[in-house]
Amino acid sequence: VEIAPAIMASTLMELLWLTLYVGLNLFTTVLNKGILDKNSLNIPYPSVLALWHYCCTAVGSVMAVRMFGATTPATLDRTAHIQLFLFSVLFNVNILVSTVSLHMVSMALHQVVRALVPAFTVAIVFVWQRKSYSAEVLASLGLVFVGVTVYALRGELDYTTFGLGFTVFGAFLAAFKTVVTNVFMVGSLKLHPLDLLQYMTVYAALQLFVVLGYNGQLQECMDHLQTNASSNTTFMLLINGFGAFMLNCVSFYANKNTSPLAMNIGGIAKQVLAILLGIMIFHTEVTFNSAVGIAVTCSGIAWYANASYREKQRNQSQKSLPIVQQSAK
Predict the structure, then answer these.
(1) Contact criterion met (CB below 8 Å) for 194 and 249
(2) DSSP secondary-structure letter at 74?
(3) Among 49, 112, 160, 204, which is most exposed with the fewest C-beta within 10 angstroms?
(4) Which residues on adjacent β-strands are paired with residue 105?
């Protein structure tokens, strides 16, 4: 009798984390577009912006852990630091591959391929952790993919074989990064989200700083800011940096308290929400494909949430069964 309320409370908490993640993700995306767009702040250096996000998150997480005592810093050996350094490399490579692949295939195809991230997550979790999902959960993921395909495809499917393969590789990396993030927090190291963030972002920022300093982008961006910065540039960058810090914190907390697959679904929900906001605010044209695709995607997301809840109930019932049998003797 006590199982259902506990599962309901856990599910509501997961929903809260995912809602915060989707909302902050959308908010930060809008801020990023405002900074990069030539009709706004016009700072067309996405890699330097990523470095700024790393730096703000590193400062915020280090202050939270070291100054304000948000958590007790973990004692890590050399092997753990090597693992964290490789983890930060994975983060940077993931950003690079995602950015480059956007220029190798059409936007429509890129969205469709990225909708395969949940499928890669299912495969990675099965191979690595021997965890499987119910047929109902897998079917809901299939419906989500169909919905994304319907609203994304508008006839433009420009790509090369290499570009398509590179984009698929990027989708795999995105799934792998989400799973590895979860393992660092719930696996053997059991790092607190803020603890994991402070190490990952410091290592990642150092790598990106060296690369951007070497290829001249950092200096080019600084020169651009000296001649083109407006009166509100500093304010917008500070708001953007704080938003990135909050997004990274919520992302890691949500990953730990939900699952990598739930995070993937949250990412797709953000895309759908962005389209709906575009329709409501900017009066974006609603086509038959986009309407049907969004409806199908939302149905798939709702089905996934319901299927995950029922799967959690079944797992909890199976765990409780031996205890019930023992007390009956």
Answers:
(1) yes
(2) P
(3) 160
(4) 159
Long-range Cβ contact pairs of 271-278 (< 8 A, separation 24 or more): 271/111, 271/148, 272/297, 272/298, 272/301, 273/22, 273/26, 274/26, 274/29, 275/151, 277/26
Confidence of residue 320 (pLDDT cuts 50, 70, 90): low
Helix (H, G, I), strand (E, B) or coil at 285: coil
Does residue 166 carry a pLDDT above 90? yes
| pLDDT value of position 42 | 85
Token readout for 311 is 């799967």
DSSP helix, strand, coil percent of the chain (3-state; round to 5): 80, 0, 20
Tokens at residue 89, please? 């490399």
* pLDDT score at 329: 41
Whether pTM exceeds 0.85: yes
Q: 238 is written with which tokens?
A: 């500070």
Q: Measure the CA–CA gap between 191 and 180, rounded to whole angstroms.
A: 12
Please state, in angstroms and as integers, the Cα–Cα distance from residue 89 to each residue in 9, 14, 79, 92, following that order. Answer: 36, 29, 15, 5
Beta partners for residue 159, in sequence order: 105
The mean per-residue pLDDT over the stretch 190-215 comes to 96
Q: What number of other Cβ atoms are within 10 A of residue 311's Cβ?
A: 14
Burial class (CB in 10 A: 0-12, 13-18, 19+), 79: exposed
d(CA 80, CA 243): 29
With bands split at pLDDT 50, 70 and 90, how would you rate the model's confidence at 324?
Answer: very low
- Over residues 175-179, mean pLDDT: 97
Which residues neighbour 82 within 8 Å (Cβ) at sequence distance 6 or greater?
none
Residue of 279, 277, 255, 275 lying closest to 266 (CA atoms): 255
